[in-house]
Predict the structure.
Amino acid sequence: MDETCLGHRLTDDERRRFEDDGFLVVPGVLAPDRVAVLAAAAERLDAEWRPVRKVKPHEPLNLLDAIGKDDAFLDLLDLPQTFMKVVDILGWHIQLYHSHLIVTPPLPEGHVAGNPRLGWHQDSGRLNLELEGEPRSRVSLKVGFFFTSTLDADLGNFHVVPGSHRMNRLDLPEDPERDHPRATAVRVDAGDAVFFDRRLWHAAGRNRSAVTRKVLFLGYSYRWLRPRDDMTVAHYLPRADPIRRQLLGESPNGGFGYTSPAAVDVPLKTWLVERLGADGVVP
Ligand SMILES: O=C(O)CCC(=O)C(=O)O
């Protein structure tokens, strides 16, 4: 793993914002030349999969297991500018459980939304029914890497209700023509990252611009959660370092190692203890 990640720890201010708002924008994690390479990979996958999935030209394509489908995205998994912030939030017992590319073309001219409200949801389906308590446990977070700008509104912005990760239910106005009063379009530039807690009520915005929006979301969770995608990443393992192998789902101790890991199952923990000391790492 690239040691420079240690220069990009979660700051106290970032932690406070993530804990209070349920999301955090980290600007400029990708240089423009890298964004261009990643945007080109997104375009390749869109050209290949849109016809396969029979997604119409103006509809969003949501492609799961994006990491497995194009190795251009692999280095984002432990990108120095983002990875330690994930570790500082979730700890070392983590994996990639989900990677999806969303390509959002412009709506056709004159489009009127059938339902003016956005599709608000929390991530991970049945976790939101079967975990007890309010708020339920966090379990996972996503990092969205933006390959196109959504600095203005109506560019297909990622939308959030700030602070809503503490609520099991999102109360919407009775008037079906109105959206949540605190619905917020997150405005980020190409190359920025958005971290968000899976419990945060969020939604995709509409793209009324002329530019196709491209975003890759990487979902990190504790290792005991089953992957949400049919992950096709085995071809990366022979050349991956031990920490990447952990992140890609390897468990030398098999099923047992996902809930009661030995050191060999979690090389990220050893790596962190060697650099930060045992006191600098969650037990
Ligand atoms: O496309 C978007 O901005 C929304 C993404 C989303 O809903 C998700 O990652 O669960």
User: Anything to note?
Assistant: The CA atoms of residues 156 and 205 lie 4 Å apart. The beta strands are 23-26, 61-64, 94-104, 140-146, 158-160, 184-185, 193-197, 202-204, 213-222.
